[in-house]
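Backbone geometry:
***
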Amino acid sequence: MTRVEIEYCVPCGMLNRAQDVSEAILKQFGESIDEVALVTGEAGVFVVRADDEVVFDKEEDEYDVDAIVRSVKPYVGAAA
């Protein structure tokens, strides 16, 4: 099963975004994933990984919760 990690910048105040993404992923995939982990970071980081693969990086992608959830789906598989 899938592990999702959301690394977010604490000093930048990105906890709310990390929580929003976490909640959306859990609502969409429920028990089809093992874990959604919030990982503290700094220097403006906001990166989402699914099974250690980067699926969203705010440096390269536009922040969109729905798009992030869609980017996680291939890692969850057909069960979702």
User: Anything to note?
Assistant: Residues 27 and 43 are 29 Å apart (CA to CA). The chain has a mean pLDDT of 94. The helical segments are 15-29, 65-76. The chain is about 35% helix and 35% strand.
